[in-house]
C-alpha cells in the first residue's frame, strides 16, 4: 500500500510557512514503513533537530480506481480517520533550497502515526468536519474540512490521473495552521469533534 499526502491544502497553513496557495493539488508519498500504529511512541530521529506535527484527516481507499471523475470520488473511501504527518522541517527546508525531493524530511520511519477510523456514514457532512490537535493538553491546531482548498473528491480525481488508487491506500488530506515543534515526552492527541482518534507519546 502507499500513503499519499496532500501539501498546502489549507490556505492559513500555506501562509504560515510562506508558501503560495496552490492552483492544483500538491502531493507526495510516504512508504508503508512510515506508519506508526495508534498509541505507539514516536522516537525523534537522530538526523533532525526540528520535527513538526501536522494533524490531518486521513481517507482509507476502499476500491480500486484510476482516472476517477471528481463527482465519483466519494465512492472510493468508506472510512475517515486522523493521522499525523511528522515532518523534519529543518531537513525539508534544505531540500526545498536545493530543489531536492522531500522524502528525507517526510517519509522516514514512524513519520505517519495513524489513529482509529470511523465509518464515513457517521458524518452528516464530509465538508464540515472539525478536527484538532493538542500538545500536552494544549490546543495547537484547529481545522475544518470546509476550509480545504481541494475537497476529498477533487483530491481523489487529481491523484488518480497519475497513479492507481488501491484498496488500503491512505490519503492524508493536508494540515491546517498551527504546526510546531515536538520535544521528548510530549503527548500529542488528535480529535474529530470531541472524539479522541489518535494518541502519540514522543520519546
Ligand atoms: Zn502534511
Task: Explain what the structure shows.
There is one protein chain. With 203 residues, this protein is mainly beta. It has one domain: Alpha-Beta Complex (Fumarylacetoacetate hydrolase, domain 2), CATH 3.90.850.10. The protein is built from 4 helices and 14 strands. The strands form 3 sheets. Strands 2-1-11-5-6-8-3 form a 7-stranded mixed beta sheet, covered by helices on one side. A 4-stranded antiparallel beta sheet has the order 10-9-13-14, with no helix packed on it. Strand 13 and strand 14 form a beta hairpin. The model has no long low-confidence stretch (mean pLDDT 97). Bound molecules: zinc ion. Zinc ion (ZN) binds next to loops.
Set down the secondary structure blueprint:
Layout: E1 3-7, H1 11-16, E2 26-30, E3 35-36, E4 51-53, E5 55-61, E6 77-84, E7 87-88, H2 89-98, H3 103-106, E8 112-119, E9 130-135, E10 138-144, H4 152-159, E11 170-172, E12 180-181, E13 187-192, E14 195-201
The site of zinc ion has 7 residues, from loops.
Secondary-structure element pattern, one letter each: EHEEEEEEHHEEEHEEEE
The low-confidence parts are: none
Rg (C-alpha, Å): 16 Å
Within CATH, the superfamily carries the name: Fumarylacetoacetase-like, C-terminal domain
Q: How do you describe this structure in short?
A:
The chain has 203 residues and is mainly β. The protein has a single domain, classed as Fumarylacetoacetate hydrolase, domain 2.
Amino acid at each position: 500500500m502507499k500513503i499519499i499526502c496532500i501539501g498546502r491544502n489549507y490556505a492559513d497553513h500555506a501562509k504560515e510557512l510562506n508558501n503560495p496557495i496552490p492552483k492544483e493539488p500538491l502531493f507526495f508519498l510516504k512508504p508503508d514503513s512510515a506508519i506508526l500504529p495508534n498509541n505507539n511512541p514516536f522516537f525523534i530521529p537522530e538526523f533532525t533537530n526540528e520535527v513538526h506535527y501536522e494533524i490531518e484527516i486521513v481517507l482509507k481507499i476502499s476500491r480500486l480506481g484510476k482516472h476517477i471523475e471528481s463527482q465519483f470520488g466519494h465512492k472510493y473511501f468508506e472510512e475517515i480517520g486522523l493521522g499525523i504527518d511528522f515532518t523534519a522541517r529543518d531537513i525539508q527546508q534544505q531540500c526545498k533550497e536545493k530543489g531536492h525531493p522531500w522524502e528525507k524530511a517526510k517519509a522516514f520511519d514512524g513519520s505517519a502515526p495513524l489513529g482509529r477510523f470511523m465509518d464515513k456514514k457517521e458524518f452528516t457532512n464530509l465538508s464540515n468536519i472539525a478536527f484538532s490537535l493538542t500538545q500536552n493538553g494544549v490546543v495547537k491546531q484547529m481545522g475544518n474540512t470546509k476550509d480545504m482548498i481541494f475537497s476529498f473528491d477533487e483530491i481523489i480525481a487529481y491523484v488518480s490521473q497519475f497513479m492507481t488508487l488501491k484498496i488500503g491506500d491512505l490519503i492524508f488530506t493536508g494540515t491546517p495552521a498551527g504546526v510546531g515543534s515536538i520535544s521528548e515526552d510530549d503527548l500529542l492527541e488528535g480529535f474529530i469533534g470531541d472524539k479522541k482518534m489518535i494518541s502519540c507519546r514522543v520519546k
